[in-house]
Every structure is written in structure tokens, then in C-alpha cells.
């Protein structure tokens, strides 16, 4: 089954208005922003990744969803699966602690289980945030809004490719893959201005299409405007192939915001070193997603980003 099919089925269960029809990254209940993301060995991290970086990543990917809604971290519940390797598990918790301390996220509780020997590691975290004066949804985009990317794209996917070639790889791209930085302060600064906002976790093109879909609009993206880091360009160049890789690789934990054209977020006093780039706009007409480079249209790549899909089609009876 595909992730989208599962969520479609879940929509019939999640009928509370707070669930926002499962059409956003978070739920919004009584002034709280709620999100839950899991990470699994072989799916979100490599067996060779350090335990502390896995703990950090679990917290960071959840905080990124709060950042996308401009929320302030208020608390977390951790789902911990002990692997039987005590040193690994302790180091994992060091990583969880470091990220919680860095972003002022109090751990409030959770659950602990032990995995059967050799089972892949899977962890979950529920992050709870306090909503700001406005919570920008995926669905709030207006025709004419400018699309802004906050943070660089493609670093993590490039880091993962380096690690696949050589698990001993190091450097800034590997660091972004292992220890993503949630853009909490930027999300808080932009939320009051944005008609729509979300974090980019599955790939810019897929997430931009989701924002356009939720807003009943079309997204136009200038592939040349996608923000790339110096490390990314040094590794892969800034040509069209590299840019499409950056726009579809996912795991970025950047933000995508739709902001009215008459507001210039570059005028805000954003934290120094912030990368923020005007990458396109939302329009009323046209295909759901259109790409261009210079003045020329660019055909959409086959895969716009990462979507989970189960490999097994074995019926339940065969699984026992
Ligand atoms: N197993 C699940 N049970 C209930 N809701 C789910 C489940 N999986 C995903 N969702 C909901 O579907 C929506 C989309 O999920 P997802 O794509 O994972 O969001 P994000 O990329 O922001 O983490 C969210 O509202 C999420 O809460
Ligand atoms: C070992 C490994 N293989 C592949 C990837 C790439 N990858 C896995 S999940 C994902 C997208 C984000 O994960 P998801 O579970 O969809 O998070 P969410 O969108 O729910 O925040 C990407 C790009 C990875 N991070 N690690
Ligand atoms: Mg999720």
C-alpha cells in the first residue's frame, strides 16, 4: 500500500475538526499544534549512523513540522524501542537530550518497549507546540502569493548518497543528513505573514504540489532559483540535473511559505546566515505544478519526492 492510500483511509476515522482532514502537517487543538513522526533504520537513517545522530534526528524532524506552523515547542512524548545494545541506546538518548535542550523542548513522557533481537530500530516522537497568533496551513495559499524557500535544498539527499558510497564519509552534507536543523525561529518569524506554510520533508516539488493542491491552486517554480549551499554545488554542481536532484531528494527540513506579493520577507530582521529565496508563485490557472529554467519550461521529473510504499503484498494470513 502507498502512504497516500493509507492516509485516505485514515481520513474516515480522523473526523475531528482538529485533524484538519489529515491534509496538513499537524493537528491544531485548543491552541496547541500537534505532530508525530517516526524514523526507522534503513528508511530514515542508516545502520552505520551514530546513535546520537539518530536521536537528534528524531527530535529535529518533529520540530521541523512545528516550525512549519510557526509554533513554539512546548513538549514531547517519546516512543523508545530498546535494541539490546545498551551503549547504542544510551547514546541515542544523549542525542534526544541534546536536541531537546537545544530547542527548549521539555520531554513530558512516552513509552518504552524492547525489540526482538536483530529487528530494525524504529522510534517515534509526538511534538506539541503552542500556536502563535496565526497558524499558516497548507491550504491557505492565495493566487498571486510568492513562494519562498527558507533554508537550502538537496544537502541531505547529497549527504545520503555520499554515505551510500562510503559509510565513513564526513563533511557538511553528511552532517545535514544526520543532524538536520529545524527552522523554529524562522517559522515563528514568517508565520504571521504567510498565507500557507509547511516544512519540506519529502522533496520540494512534492511538498509544493501538496500546498498547491490543498489551496486549490497551481504552483510555478523556477528551478534556477532553488537555494543551494556552497557544499552542495561543490559536490554536484548547480546544473539542471543537480537542481532537480535538490528539488526532489527530500529530507531537507527547510520551509516553504506562500506570502502575499506585496510583503517582502527580506525586510524582516531574520537570524543572520538565513537563506531565503523567492522560488516561484501560486497561480489560479494551469497545471498543478509547472517548472521553468530561464524562460523555458522544464518537464516534471518522474518522481517529485519521497513517498512511502510497502514492498510486501502478502495477505495477513501469510504473515503469521
Ligand atoms: N498513522 C496515521 N494515523 C493518523 N494520522 C496520520 C497517520 N499517518 C499520517 N497521518 C496524518 O496525515 C497527514 C500527513 O502526514 P505526513 O505526510 O506524514 O505529514 P508530514 O510530512 O508533515 O509529517 C498528517 O495530518 C498526519 O498527522
Ligand atoms: C537510509 C535512508 N534511505 C532513504 C532516505 C530518504 N528518505 C527517507 S524518508 C524521506 C522523507 C521524509 O520522511 P517521512 O517519513 O515522509 O517524513 P514526514 O514527511 O512524515 O515528515 C526521505 C527523503 C533516508 N533518509 N535514509
Ligand atoms: Mg509525518
UniProtKB/TrEMBL annotation:
This is Thiamine-monophosphate kinase. Pathway: Cofactor biosynthesis; thiamine diphosphate biosynthesis; thiamine diphosphate from thiamine phosphate: step 1/1. It catalyses: thiamine phosphate + ATP = thiamine diphosphate + ADP. ATP binds at residues 110-111, 138, 201. It is an enzyme of class 2 (transferase). Residues 24-130 form the PurM-like N-terminal domain. Residues 142-231 form the PurM-like C-terminal domain. Reaction mechanism of ThiL seems to utilize a direct, inline transfer of the gamma-phosphate of ATP to TMP rather than a phosphorylated enzyme intermediate. GO terms for molecular function: thiamine-phosphate kinase activity. Mg(2+) 4 binds at residues 25, 35, 65. Its EC number is 2.7.4.16. Residues 292-320 are annotated as: Disordered. Mg(2+) 1 binds at residues 37, 111. Pfam families: AIRS, AIRS_C. Belongs to the thiamine-monophosphate kinase family. Keywords: ATP-binding, Kinase, Magnesium, Metal-binding, Nucleotide-binding, Thiamine biosynthesis, Transferase. Substrate binds at residues 44, 251. Mg(2+) 2 binds at residues 37, 65. Mg(2+) 5 binds at residue 202. Mg(2+) 3 binds at residues 25, 65, 199.
Amino acid at each position: 500500500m502507498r502512504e497516500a492510500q493509507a492516509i485516505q483511509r485514515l481520513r474516515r476515522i480522523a473526523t475531528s475538526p482538529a485533524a484538519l482532514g489529515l491534509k496538513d502537517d499537524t493537528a491544531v487543538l485548543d491552541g496547541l499544534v500537534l505532530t508525530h513522526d517516526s524514523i526507522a533504520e534503513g528508511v530514515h537513517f542508516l545502520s552505520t549512523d551514530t546513535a546520537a545522530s539518530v536521536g537528534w534526528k528524531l527530535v529535529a524532524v518533529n520540530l521541523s513540522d512545528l516550525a512549519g506552523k510557526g509554533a513554539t515547542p512546548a513538549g514531547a512524548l517519546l516512543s523508545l524501542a530498546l535494541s539490546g545494545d545498551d551503549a547504542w541506546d544510551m547514546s541515542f538518548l544523549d542525542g534526544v537530550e541534546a536536541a531537546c535542550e537545544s530547542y527548549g523542548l521539555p520531554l513530558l513522557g512516552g513509552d518504552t518497549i524492547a525489540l526482538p533481537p536483530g529487528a530494525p530500530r524504529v522510534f517515534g516522537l509526538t511534538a506539541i507546540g503552542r500556536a502563535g497568533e496565526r497558524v499558516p496551513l497548507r491550504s491557505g495559499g492565495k493566487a498571486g502569493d510568492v513562494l519562498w524557500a527558507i533554508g537550502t535544498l538537496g544537502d541531505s539527499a547529497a549527504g545520503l548518497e555520499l554515505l551510500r558510497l562510503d559509510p565513513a564519509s564526513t563533511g557538511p552534507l553528511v552532517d545535514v543528513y544526520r543532524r538536520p536543523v529545524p527552522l523554529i525561529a524562522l517559522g515563528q518569524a514568517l508565520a504571521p505573514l504567510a498565507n500557507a506554510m509547511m516544512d519540506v520533508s519529502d522533496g520540494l516539488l512534492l511538498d509544493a504540489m501538496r500546498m498547491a493542491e490543498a489551496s486549490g491552486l497551481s504552483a510555478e517554480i523556477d528551478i534556477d532559483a532553488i537555494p543551494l549551499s556552497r557544499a552542495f554545488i561543490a559536490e554536484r554542481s548547480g546544473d539542471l540535473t543537480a537542481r532537480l536532484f535538490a528539488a526532489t531528494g527530500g529530507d531537507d527540513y527547510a520551509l516553504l511559505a506562500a506570502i502575499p506579493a506585496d510583503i517582502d520577507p527580506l525586510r524582516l530582521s531574520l537570524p543572520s546566515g538565513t537563506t531565503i529565496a523567492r522560488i516561484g508563485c501560486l497561480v489560479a490557472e494551469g497545471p498543478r505544478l509547472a517548472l521553468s529554467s530561464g524562460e523555458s519550461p522544464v518537464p516534471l521529473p518522474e518522481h517529485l519526492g519521497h513517498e512511502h510504499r510497502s514492498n510486501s503484498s502478502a495477505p495477513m494470513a501469510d504473515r503469521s
